[in-house]
Here is the input.
Amino acid sequence: MRFSDFIEKGQVRKASPDVSLAKSLIATSETDLKFLKSVEITETSARKVMTNYYDVLRSVLEAILALEGYKTYSHEAFTYFLKEKDEQLIAEKFDRFRKIRNKINYYGKDISVEEVKEHSTEIIKMIEILKNKYLKELM
Here is the structure.
């Protein structure tokens, strides 16, 4: 599958580049990240903290797509977008986190405190790499 397949299916639409949307998404992702870093990860909070870290990563990806003139209605499309940007490792990690988030949200799966701590560290690194590589001119 390719990113263009999502466009053909209507799961991604081409639009004009939207700098103001990208800036807004970056700002909210930074605020959300500060909040998440302040939350203690416990057995009670682990599920919500994990899904919210994923949402911050997704927001950063949405900002990148907005700059390039795309709007996606499919989380899976981000994986293929990243692959076409030669971000294979980030694409694979994103897809893994997408599946973890889906299991939590749609199938009631639990996640351990240790897993969330490990995953959140990875997500924060991914966010920094993506922001520095694709969004630096907006920050």
